[in-house]
Design a protein that fits this description.
Amidase signature (AS) enzymes; alpha+beta; twelve-stranded mixed beta sheet; two-stranded antiparallel ribbon; single chain; 16 strands; 15 helices
Length: 485
């Protein structure tokens, strides 16, 4: 059975069964695979536990656009049979996984959060990353929500409505991978796909207390191209760093359809994951030299930076030394959105989220010189950070300057769509530079809302970012906390 938007099924579990199911739903992919191998747990049980959480809580959270109960359980039974023979298909055989509704998935519509996309058409292709997970035996639960065309830092759309934060359902889960982050935080599948063109993995990871990794550009093949072109990355969203390393190992496998893809490295990102940070040179910037940061966020991130010192790294408080690139990012992002969607017919444009429609109009007004000036800023920023990393292995910042704000708004204060990126100053610079960057939970604000630490590495050093995140997670396992639903 495929459950469409807005429809859930009652979960008939007794209280004791529900508690066991919840514990299983929060079991990491890494631990699930150990149990499958030992045949102490079945993929059917793990999938049923994830589906039970969805049935129980997604009517409130609205993290899923589509849930395929029957398809997921059928895939789990096939996986169970393979494990019983000792012949798993791949690295994630039987692991419940969700797919963000901007990535193509064979047999399911990919609506991109928009009423302008016709669901009644052939859906015969998987995106490269989805294809690789399918090759490795993942059990796909369904599609997670996104703002229209992934164009906002919060997750709501005319198609699916508002997605809510499991830690406080009156607060946003962030975006544009807000459905994925809410699903992971709520135990509705341990592995989730995110995409990130200006923070869309890291923003929701920071707001919901999960781990999100934006890989180096080209590390994970992508097709078809994002409206945001070379700003956009595909990456994992999980509850643990080890699970993200596992997922990245799979989705970084090659696909000829992406001509931007990096040369394939046959590596397992779990190798060396527990190597620690002793001796690394780490820069810590509380504000990048231009951002305003909530005092609770600032205190939590400063404390997190101190953990790296305790772990043997050489930590220095220093700003990376570039000017605020907001104007250039807006130009690049809005021009891309206008180019991809500006041709929508007037009757379809009437159904578009007013925020996205305004961004399309702003993008149409961008001239040649303004665009090329923004490209020049991007080139200079990328070069600057390459030189910066000659002195520092990693850079630490807050993921976000504030905890999650109220749902139903583009930004914490005001409604000027031209300024919505102002509240995400730490994420988009590193889409412009294409560097790997991750958000790891580092604490909670007084209202009980998660706070994220961002770890940024040199281009192509995803392994170092993951290794540092793993070291921090072991020392400060705040990400193992669960929201009360």
């Amino acid at each position: 059975m495929v459950t469409p938007v807005g429809v859930t099924m009652a979960c008939p579990l007794h209280q004791e069964e529900a508690a066991v199911s919840d514990d299983l739903a929060y079991t990491s992919a890494t631990d699930l695979l150990i149990a499958y191998r030992a045949q102490t747990l079945s993929p059917v049980e793990a999938t049923a536990a994830a589906l039970a959480r969805i049935d129980a809580h997604d009517e409130l959270l609205n993290a899923y656009l589509l849930v395929d109960h029957d398809g997921a359980l059928a895939a789990a039974r096939e996986s169970e049979a393979r494990w019983a023979k000792g012949e798993p298909r791949g690295l994630v055989d039987g692991v419940p996984t969700s797919i963000k509704d901007v990535l193509l998935s064979k047999g399911w519509p990919t609506l991109r959060g928009s009423k302008t996309v016709d669901p009644d058409q052939p859906w015969d292709d998987d995106a490269p990353s989805v294809a690789r997970m399918r090759d490795h035996g993942a059990v796909f639960l369904g599609k997670t929500t996104t703002p229209e065309f992934g164009g906002k830092g919060v997750t709501d759309s005319p198609l699916t409505g508002i997605t809510r934060n499991p830690w406080n359902t009156e607060r946003t889960s962030g975006g544009s991978s807000g459905g994925a982050s809410s699903a992971v935080a709520a135990g509705m599948g341990p592995l989730a796909f995110g995409t990130d063109a200006g923070g869309s993995i890291r923003i929701p990871a920071g707001f919901t207390g999960v781990f999100g990794h934006k890989p180096s550009f080209g590390r994970v093949p992508a097709w078809p191209a994002s409206p945001f072109s070379t700003l956009a990355h595909v990456g994992p969203m999980t509850r643990t760093v080890a699970d993200a390393a596992l997922m990245l190992t799979v989705i970084s496998e090659p696909d000829a359809r992406d001509w931007f893809a990096l040369p394939f490295e046959a590596r397992d990102y779990r190798d060396g994951l527990y190597g620690g940070v002793e001796g690394l040179r780490i820069a810590y910037s509380p504000d990048l030299g231009y951002a305003s940061v909530d005092h609770e966020v600032a205190a939590a991130v400063a404390s997190a930076a101190g953990v790296f010192s305790d772990l043997g790294a050489e930590v220095e408080q220093v700003n990376p030394g570039f000017d605020d690139p907001t104007a250039a990012f807006r130009t690049l992002a809005w021009a891309g959105l206008a180019h991809a969607l500006g041709g929508l017919a007037a009757d379809k444009l009437a159904f578009v989220d007013p925020c996205i429609a305004q961004l399309i109009e702003l993008g149409r007004d961008i001239g040649r010189d303004e665009y090329l000036d923004a490209v020049a800023v991007r080139i200079a920023l990328g070069g600057h950070m390459t030189v910066f990393h000659q002195s520092y292995d990693l850079l630490l910042t807050p993921t976000l300057p504030i905890p999650a704000f109220d749902v139903g708004h583009y930004m914490p204060e005001g409604d000027d769509v031209r300024r919505w990126v102002d509240w995400t100053p730490f994420s988009y610079p590193f889409n412009m530079t294409q560097q790997p960057a991750a958000s790891v939970p580092c604490g909670f604000a007084s209202e009980g809302l998660p706070i994220g630490l961002q770890i940024i590495g040199p281009m192509h050093r995803d392994d170092m970012v993951l290794r540092a995140a793993q070291a921090f997670e072991q020392a400060n396992p705040v990400g193992r906390e669960r929201p009360t639903l």
